[in-house]
From TrEMBL:
This is Beta-phosphoglucomutase. Its cofactor is Mg(2+). GO terms for molecular function: beta-phosphoglucomutase activity; metal ion binding. It catalyses: beta-D-glucose 1-phosphate = beta-D-glucose 6-phosphate. It comes from the Bacteria. Pfam families: Hydrolase. InterPro entries: B-phosphoglucomutase_hydrolase (IPR010976), Beta-PGM-like (IPR051600), HAD-like_sf (IPR036412), HAD-SF_hydro_IA (IPR006439), HAD_sf (IPR023214), PGP-like_dom2 (IPR023198). Its EC number is 5.4.2.6. Belongs to the HAD-like hydrolase superfamily. CbbY/CbbZ/Gph/YieH family.
Amino acid sequence: MTLGLPDGITACLFDLDGVLTSTAVLHRRAWKRTFDALLAQRGEPEFTESDYVRFVDGRPRYDGVREFLASRKVVLPEGDHDDPPEADTVHGVGNRKNELLEEIITEEGVSPYPGSVDYVKAARDAGLAIAVVTSSANAEKVLRASDLAQYVQARVDGVTIVRDGLKGKPAPDSFLAGARALGVPPERAAVFEDALAGVQAGRAGAFGFVVGVDRADQADALASHGADVVVADLAELL
């Protein structure tokens, strides 16, 4: 095995937030601020960590809004992609969250996980093709800020998903698009994910190997949702 991967794997498809960078924490904070304000107006209990994991984590932004609001039986009009952040629509709420996230990133910056940087460098040196596959529309900005863009040969992100009409995770569409962009069949690619929806997508796409990265004390859940192996940090695979 090379880098903890089975023989025959020639490409790595990395999720971004929570796998390569610590920005999953920033996403969580932006979602909480967004939903807590909305829920307070309706006398509803606050947005919880469990809500984040079950309904939002790993999904495209507007899908996350729909899933969470449905769980609380809150009904909002769909709206349009260009709705202003203050609009009480599904798209307005999603855009509000994205505006908050961009503010947090600008104020606090982006930190890659050292073990992930080492792993990506090792993958490049081993001749493996590398793509980032994320539901975030801010991937380009995050990759530049974390100095990881230099290692990435292809990127499928929230912008790509909307533009190409792809289904979001847990559907495998975005990972399959990443493999196509690298010219690699799914069985030759490994998926690296920290979200339950993400490992489900990797398994649904019949990829050659699925690595679950446990940043939220959910190792058993990652395994039961489709991860072949679960690690706390990618450095464990070196």
